[in-house]
Amino acid sequence: MSIALDGSSARAFPQLPDEWTGFLESFLTSVADEMIAEIQVKVPEYSRLDPTYEANIRAAVEGALQHFVELVADPEASLEKLTEVYRFIGWGEAREGRSLDNLQIAMRLGARVALRRITAESERYDLPRSALGEMAEAILLFLDELAAAAAAGYHAASEQVAGEQSRRRRRLLDLLLAEPPASPAMVAEAARSAEWRVPKSVAAVALRERRTEEFLQPALPPDVLMDLNRHEPCLIVPDPDGPGRRQMLEGALRDWSAAIGPTVEAGELGRSLRWARDTLVLAERGVVPDDGLIRCVDHMPSLVVFKDEELVWTVAKTRLAPLLDIRARHRDRLARTLLACLQSGFNATEVANRLHVHPQTVRYRLHQLEELFGDQLYDPEARMAFEMSLRVWLTLVAEGREV
């Protein structure tokens, strides 16, 4: 008979001589104590079980021994009920957080005890040793079947546990990012359920996947909450300013465009994520560089300026009106030169380095700008308005906005 659970071909259970049935029945079902004792000595984890669990294990061992004797008598006997028991045992081991390795070691130890006892009894009753090989094969086939059932149950439970934990962590992430913020009590309860310690400081990370041949999930430590299946994927990072945290994120997110919001308390994570997403949008537009993990606190001026870019654009068309009568190509050069001058304190050498032109070219353009804007070019009160106007002007024109 084939005893493979999945329907695939397997070695047939050997047809043993009739005398083996009575021989095995005479002692094998009484070997349970010996098997359990051996397991508890060799696998310490099973020596500390509560009485209820130990009773269940004993029932499984005795059931396996009885089914083996029945299988020897009738190789076509069904193993469905027994394999269901071992699937449940494997499922329970995973739910309790125990190792599948220990379970399989225990099963092999039990088989070894049974084979050792069979060998000893066969010598006592002077049974032919030629059949011992077939008996050993039968025991191994039987063990393989039960081990496969236990492994199937274990993996099913592991997937279930992982799915439940993943759902709890996503719920926690949703609560932490909610605006208005969820109550501290709700967050604390969700954090306990997800086995996540609420830290003193956190930051949100907004993500956008770069175009790659295959999806690569970032390898992040377990204290980082993530949801990559959202329309706008994101992370929650505890202690973002701690030693090595930035390097860890940069390494894990090398296949993503990522912006990290300001460090805040847990109740302010929604705002941290909002600012991180705004920064990521600016990076996509080329307003801020997309060169690794973008720290939104490094780009606060840009965030402020582009928060209401329509207002700034309207003001810019008035503030920069003298440039409108100049042809587009030269107008763009003068606008970029003026922005660089404002950012460099009108230092011609530094501006030249920024723009990759000769300092004399900068002086020539600056002279033209002075003719266009007059004294207001150097008015401290006008400097911020000029810079804000130029940043939005240059970005929107580059994106095709008509002046």
TrEMBL record:
Pfam families: HTH_30, PucR-like_N. InterPro entries: CdaR-like_regulators, PucR-like_N, PucR_C-HTH_dom, PucR_C-HTH_sf. Residues 13-177 form the PucR-like N-terminal domain. Residues 334-392 form the PucR C-terminal helix-turn-helix domain. This is PucR family transcriptional regulator. It comes from Actinocorallia aurantiaca. The lineage of its organism: Bacteria, Bacillati, Actinomycetota, Actinomycetes, Streptosporangiales.
